[in-house]
Fold this sequence. Notes:
This protein is of the alpha/beta class. It has a single domain, classed as Rossmann fold (3-Layer(aba) Sandwich). The protein has seven helices and ten strands. It has a seven-stranded parallel sheet with strand order 1-10-9-6-2-3-5, covered by helices on one side. The protein has a three-stranded antiparallel sheet with strand order 4-8-7. Helix 7 links the parallel strand 9 and strand 10. It is globular, with a radius of gyration of 16 Å. The structure holds fructose -6-phosphate. The site of fructose -6-phosphate (F6R) has 14 residues, from loops. One of its GO terms (cellular component) is cytoplasm. InterPro entries: Glc/Gal-6P_isomerase (IPR006148), Glucosamine6P_isomerase (IPR004547), Glucosamine6P_isomerase_CS (IPR018321), NagB/RpiA_transferase-like (IPR037171). Pfam families: Glucosamine_iso. One of its GO terms (biological process) is N-acetylneuraminate catabolic process.
Amino acid sequence: MEIAVVADEQGVGRSAADVLEEALRHGCRRLGLATGSSPLATYAELVRRHREGLSFAEVDAYLLDEYVGLAPGHPESYARVIRRELTDAIDIDPARVHGPDGTARDPREAAAAYESLLGAVGGVDVQLLGIGTNGHIGFNEPGSSLGSRTRVKTLTLQTRLDNARFFASLGKVPVHVITQGLATISSAGHLLLVASGAHKAAAVAAALEGPVTASCPASVLQLHPHVTVVLDEAAARLLT
Ligand code: F6R
């Protein structure tokens, strides 16, 4: 595992974009994308580099997760968020941006279909990840099996409180999600975790230096052969 500590969130974005650009230039064609605040600086940097010539025309992108039950086209659905923050601003084919269908009549079937799709393509080359304050990756909340696959999960109150900033009120934050499982995420060739801010420091330290345990789902990264972690100084402050 390679851990890079840089000064601030913009530095995290530049360093993570370096990793992704290098992967793209060496043939990465299946890119795993996260949503939420953590990757925003990375996406802003990728958009800037796209304007200078970095192309995503040959790339398929795969989302980590999606809320269940938001109306189609809801601005906070992750399908919409990724368009707004990244894919509408680069030359990726919109038909090649994939994610679980949170509007499906049967979310369990939608989860199984997404897992099948990921299996059929052989997993992604590089998976970008953020980390929740409770140590989740994707929406694999504490207690998630390290062997889990894409499925429907119930969000913890902590995660719903953390994400309430994107919604009008806590009551509007969905309770259920479809998320890639920890084993699904681990099937990526390369995992790239980004974190910024002091509020992530405890989760980062538990994930990288604590025991490998379902109580801290991100600790599964310790089992993967190719992991890059990019942190700002605040997020790294509890590392020994
Ligand atoms: C989002 C995702 C989540 C977030 C995590 C951190 O697709 O999979 O694991 O990365 O909840 O969220 P932010 O980045 O908003 O602090």
